[in-house]
Each structure stands twice: as C-alpha cells, then as structure tokens.
Design brief:
alpha+beta, 17% helix, globular, 12 helices
Length: 712
C-alpha cells in the first residue's frame, strides 16, 4: 500500500510535512513567559524538541542563567490528555496547537504555579522544583492561585471551586441548569474580546469575582462529523449577528463565608463585559461595552455592596477598540487605559493621553513604579511592533530598537523580550536587566527548511504596505528583462490583523508557493489593518469590499513598479477573512483576479458572531445592505473563474455552512468549482496529514489554474 502522499513530488511534500511535524514551528520554541516581581526568575514553557508537542514547565534563574525543568509530562505517565469541552474550546480560541502544559497561573511573587495535565491539577514549587497532584472532584478548568499562594480556584463541570492548599475543595458557585456556568468566559469574550478568563482573585486573596454565564438565550447550532454516521451531532451555543448573546453577570464571593453580592451596572445598555481588573491598591474594575460598541464605560465596583461607580465613558461614532492589558492601575492608584485621540490609539493615565499622536498602542504589558510598559506601532512603520515605556515623569522610551516585531514580559528591572527580527526567520528570546542582555532562552525547535527573502515596499496612492516574495529568494533587481511571473495575492486583508510584518519568518508559506510554483507572491495590507491610525482602521465601517479595492489597486501599482508581474495570470489565496476576500475577488473583480483559493470563508456575515460582525457592519436588521454587499453569495451566479474552497467540518468559529452555501450557490448557477471539506478540522485547519493534504490540494489547483493559465 502506498504511503500517504508518496506519489507526489518530494519537494512539494517537504515543507508541509515540516509544518505538520512541528505544529507550525510551535514545538521546541519557548513561550508563555512569566517574570517574578523581584526579577529573580523567569517561568516559561518549551517542549524537548522540534517534533515534540508536549510542553514542559521551566524556570530560568536570572542571576546564574541556569535553566531547569520543573515539570515534564513525558516523565509523569499522564498519558493522553483528558480534555474537557471547555478546555477544547479554550485551546481553539487561543489557537493552541501543542500539548503537555499549555497554560499555567502563578501567585503574585511567582513562587508557585498551577496547571492541568493529563486531566489532573498540579501544583509546582518553582524554587524547589517539587510538584504535587491536587485531588479535585473532576477534571478542572482554568486553575488560578490566589495572589498570596494559599488557595487555588478552578472550574469543574461549570461550577466554581476553591481549595486551600493542603485542604479539600468546595463549591463556591454552581447551577443545576446545564447551560449556565460559572468562572469561565463565554464564546464571544474569548474569541473576540480577548478575555480568556472568567474569575479573578482579590489582591489579598480573601475574595473572588466570578462571571455567571447564562447561555440559554443563545441559539443552538450543531457540529457534525459526517465521517461517522453513528456519531451524535455536538450542540454549540453560537451567537451569530443579530441574535441574542449570553447573559453575563459578575459576582463577588467572600471565600471564607461563601457569601456573595452581584456587581450591578446597566446591563441592558452595556451587555458586553469586556474586561475585569483587580489590582493591588485599586478597586475591582470593569470595562463594559454597549451592543453596538460605540460606548464603553470603566466602572469601579464596591466589593461589599456590588454597586458600581463610573470612572470614565468613551464614545466613538464607529466603535471602541479593546486593548489587551487594559484597564490597569499604577501603584499610586491612577487608572491606565487608552483613548482614541488625534488619529491614534494613545496610552492614557486618568483619561489623559501620555503618548504622541503618531504611535498606536497595541497592548499594555505592565504598570508599576517604573511606569507603563506597552507594545505599539508608529504610523510611519506599521509593519513593526516595538516595546515602549512611559516613565512616571512622562518620558517615553523605546525599549527595542532592531527592526521587527517585539513583545515582552516584565518583572521588576527584568524584561524577557521576544523578538522576530527583520533579518531572521526564527524568533529570539533575550532576558534583559536595565536594558542589558543577561541571558537568552534558546529554542530547540526545527529551523524552517525555507529561507524567505521578502522585499518590503509602499505602493499606490494609499501608501499600501506590501511585501513581494519571488522564487528562490530573488530580489526584483535580479529578475532578467523579459521575465514574466504569475502573481499570487496572499492577503488576510481584514480589520484587526496584518500580514505585512517586518520579519522573514512571516513569509514562510509565501516562500513555499513562490518556490514550488515559480510565481511572485504579493502580500498587501489595506484599509482596516492596525498600526496606521484609527481613521485608517475605520475605513472598513459598513463595507468590507473596500479591502478588495486595496488589493486590486496594490496589484496594479506593483505591476507598474515591477513589469515582470503578469497581470494576465493572477490568483488570490486566503483563509478566514482572507477566504472571504478571495471569494469577493473572483466575483467582483474577475478582470483582475482569475482564480481563487478560498479557505474557511465567511461568505455570509449573518453566520458570524455578534461582537465582530456588528462592530463593522452594524445590526443585520438595520444594515442589510452592508451584509449583502460584503457577501459573495448575492453575486455568485455570473462567476466564470475557477475556485477551490476548503473548510474544516469541525470549525466552531467560521462554521462550514459558509463554504457549503457558497458551493450551493455556484452549483445552482451551473458554475463548476472545487470543494474540499476537511474532516474533524477546526478553524486552525487540521493537523498532521490534513495539513499536508491541504497544501498539496492548493498546489495542484494553482498549477492548473494560475501557472498554466493562458490569457484569453
């Protein structure tokens, strides 16, 4: 019997196999960093090799530079992971592809850590390296240590538990209704708001704030496995645009007595609980949003009565952007957040901007006595992200200087800086004290077999940030006169994300297609992408098709600069929003784009979730024309160009109905097309042989309909 894919060209197989084997290079790379407040130690995760998906828990001693393993799942005999439905959902929301220890939580001083592996709760002493199992009444979800390190909270079957270390756990909150759960985020919070948790300890460890999530108002959808006709469909509460959200309330529990109060705010006007913070010396603080996301309020809650007081209200005619890490507080009690002012998303202290207008804040990392550390992009260089600090005297320092993408984890005077540099394929991790590198945390992952050499440029009237990848690392100046390359447009193209990033590691897939097909891959970030100011982001309000205009305009501008780009042979490939963009391209601009690979597309925005979709397009009952304009389904019948649509049948984010409805519309119109449905694959796109098969299917399609295409 022939081994899977062995009939294919070995060079076609090499990179997809490496992607599958390394879980997209996540294996062996250090990640999930935590730094003790005294700067003495760094906690992180890393597996043993580039093909090992089981993460270990590590500690680095910052003084000596010594690394040591605290917990190795391969040595504990945990076996196959026992995942709850909630943990599977959390991993999907986090786009987690590895195993072993994938998340942990520490006490305030980072002396202990709790995590789940093999369905069991573990407590690690980060100094001695001792690890003990904590007996729980079921498989726990999202365990958290209280700041003092004396207690652990966790969720079992939707009930919130608390347990003294060395004691027996007890239920703090629960509900007999199966569609009501405590202490975990709802789908919308985790997928769209960046709120990955549902309970928070008070700074002194005596109280616990917890969400109660009532999903009964949310419609039920079903995820099926057509490969197993005996399998029951899996129900899923999915709040699609225009339908009811889950009812989310917040409650404060006294851990000793079990007594509780409900935190009250006008939930009818502000139904989104977007963020919660409970910092030392500061009140329990909520960030709530209106359903249309045009109004947001920062609220301080009285932990004894539940009564809230408004600290600030933000209003925007389009939407309020949520920034990870906010709200938070400085040690002197001043509120740290962001405000949209003078065309930028600016860091604010007590509502007053403290960063310049030409710098967009992406996330807040820490706020302490030294100031506020954050990541951000300058409008003149949106393809880069740097780490910055606003000091207590108002001085703004850029903590990273090399071109690329940087983020950090900090504690005291120590910062772990994670850098994907402009001239590198793999990220580097440096441990810095007072800005000086004192240690590095090495990767043991595989080095990619490809060596992308993107050419970055700014093109067109809108100054579109773009990157061109040519076969075998060629630069535009190397191309002989008379050469003609087919063009593969490879955008994400939608709001809230960018593809043109100043690091070679971002272009591995582009390099693969360029090398294997002999094509020029052109990546363009258009309107709606972050880093170029709030007005640029809001250009997509009410109309996603402007993103297609930017792709076509950028294509033509690039061809004027580089005549070797063959405008008679152009295809587009994209996943998720990029899949939608690819479908729109062959429907609305068949003059410019002649074939499309359409991956996991949102072909009907009415099938996507409330928070994302209504932010940009409004409510479907009030803005039906915006939904129709942004859907290829309404204009599919005239389609004449070839398409390949791929979708995972287990996708609970962009459900497979999107691809099937597009295929149905084409079939009903008599339009030939290709459809690949990936069994048991989520929005990530599957693992192992599914990854390999997906890449091979795309290569085959593009060879037939792009490389071999001849102008009519």
């Amino acid at each position: 019997m022939t081994a899977p894919h062995e009939r294919h060209d070995p060079d076609d197989l090499a990179f997809p196999r490496q992607l599958a084997r390394t879980r997209s290079f996540a294996c062996g790379r250090p990640r999930r960093f935590g730094v003790s407040p005294d700067g003495a130690r760094v906690v992180f995760l890393r597996s043993s090799a580039g093909d090992d998906p089981a993460n270990r828990l590590w500690v680095l001693d910052c003084a000596s530079g010594e690394e040591r393993v605290v917990y190795d799942p391969r040595e504990t005999g945990s076996g196959e992971p026992e995942l709850t439905d909630a943990e599977r959902a959390r991993r999907e929301r986090a786009r987690e592809t590895t195993g072993g220890v994938v998340a942990y939580a520490t006490d305030r001083d980072v002396t202990k850590a709790v995590f789940v592996d093999g369905g069991r709760l573990h407590l690690a002493d980060l100094s001695s390296g001792d690890v003990v199992d904590i007996r729980t009444p079921g498989v726990p979800d999202d365990p958290r240590l209280d700041p003092t390190g004396a207690r652990i909270s966790y969720v079992v079957d939707g009930s919130l538990h608390v347990q003294e270390i060395g004691g027996v756990g007890r239920v703090l909150a629960g509900d007999d209704e199966p569609n009501v759960h405590w202490g975990l985020p709802e789908f919308i919070a985790a997928e769209e708001m960046g709120r990955m948790r549902g309970h928070w300890w008070s700074p002194d460890g005596t109280k616990l704030a917890a969400c109660r999530v009532d999903e009964r108002p949310v419609q039920v959808w079903w995820i099926t496995d057509p490969t197993d006709p005996a399998a029951e469909p899996r129900p899923m509460r999915y709040p699609s645009a225009g339908t009811p959200n889950a009812l989310v309330t917040l409650h404060v529990f006294d851990v000793a007595t079990g007594g509780s109060v409900e935190v009250t705010w006008d939930a009818s006007a502000f139904e989104y609980l977007s963020a919660v913070a409970w910092d030392e010396g500061a009140p329990l603080t909520l960030l709530v949003q209106s359903r249309d996301q045009r109004v947001a309020r920062f609220l301080a809650a009285d932990e004894l009565t539940g009564v809230t007081t408004m600290l600030r209200e933000d209003v925007d005619e389009h939407w309020i952007e949520l920034v990870p890490g906010t709200p938070t507080y400085l040690p002197d009690g001043r509120l740290v957040s962001t405000v949209d002012a003078d065309g930028a998303r600016r860091l604010a202290v007590e509502g007053e901007p403290v960063t310049p207008p030409g710098l967009d804040v992406a996330s807040v990392l820490t706020a302490d006595a030294t100031g506020v550390v954050f990541t951000g992009s300058e409008h003149e260089a949106p393809e880069q992200t740097h780490v910055w600090r606003v000091r207590s005297d108002g001085t703004l320092d850029r903590l990273t200087t090399e071109p690329g993408l940087h983020t950090a984890a900090t504690g005291g005077e120590v910062a772990v800086v994670i850098s994907s540099l402009a001239d590198a394929v793999e990220p580097v991790v440096s441990v810095r004290r007072h800005g000086e590198v004192v240690a590095t945390i090495a990767s043991v992952g595989e080095t990619p077999i490809l060596d992308p050499r993107p050419t970055f440029t700014v093109i067109g009237e809108r100054q579109l940030r773009s990157a061109l990848v040519l076969p075998r690392g060629a630069s535009p100046g190397d191309v002989p006169d008379g050469t003609s390359f087919p063009v593969l447009l490879a955008p994400y193209g939608g709001p809230h994300a960018r593809e043109v990033e100043r690091t070679r590691g971002a272009f591995l897939t582009a390099c693969f297609y360029a090398d294997r097909l002999g094509v020029a891959v052109l990546v363009i970030d258009g309107r709606g992408t972050p880093g170029r100011g709030t007005a640029w982001e809001r250009e997509v309000a009410g109309d996603f098709t402007v993103t297609l205009e930017d792709q076509v305009d950028g294509l033509h501008a690039a061809a004027e600069r580089w005549p070797f780009l063959d405008l008679e042979r152009v295809a587009m490939i994209g996943w998720s929003f990029g899949g939608l963009l690819s479908a729109l391209a062959v429907v609305d601009r068949p003059d410019a784009v002649h074939a499309a690979v359409i991956g996991a597309p949102v072909t009907d925005a009415r099938l996507y979730d409330t928070h994302y979709t209504e932010r940009y397009l409004g409510a479907p009952t009030e803005h039906a024309e915006a939904y129709d304009r942004s859907s290829p389904l309404t204009r599919a019948s005239p389609l004449t160009h070839p398409t390949l649509t791929l979708h995972g049948l287990a996708d609970d984010n962009v459900v497979a109905a999107n691809a099937l409805r597009f295929s149905t519309a084409l079939f009903a119109a008599g339009v030939p097309h290709e459809l690949v449905l990936l069994p048991n694959a989520s929005h990530i796109g599957g693992f192992d042989e599914l990854v390999i098969g997906r890449y091979l299917a795309v290569l085959d399609f593009l060879r037939r309909h792009l490389v071999e295409r001849r102008a009519s």
